[in-house]
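Quick one, T. Sequence first:
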Amino acid sequence: MASVHDVAKYLLNTHGSMSAMRLQKLLYYSQAWSLVWEERPLFDEPIEAWANGPVVPAIYAEHKGKFSISQWPHGNLRNVDPLARETIDIVFEHYKKYNTQQLSDLTHAETPWREARRGIPDGERGSQIISQASMAEYYSSL
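Structure tokens:
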């Protein structure tokens, strides 16, 4: 299985530079749809329900303070197998029509993020994990 760093490297190498927030949302959706289509996670690292939407803390730790990211210093492209690449590419093609704020708004409207944030006021920090089970259940119903 690939790590989230492998997937981030693949996204940036294949689809070009993007904002840190867009990268985070694409990692989230890639994970969600892999759980549905392939019935397996792309990566094991947790995704947390932060105020601005889903965030992988392991990725945030590396891009903190940066707006735009053009390359990823960690990861190995060989760890991203052909099935994972296909999922990531399909997710990118579908979600590229949304700007970064729209992607954030979209995640805020969806059940996995809302359930993980239950009881936390809007805009307040939180680090609750968005479970893979909630992602698989929600996105498989779409």
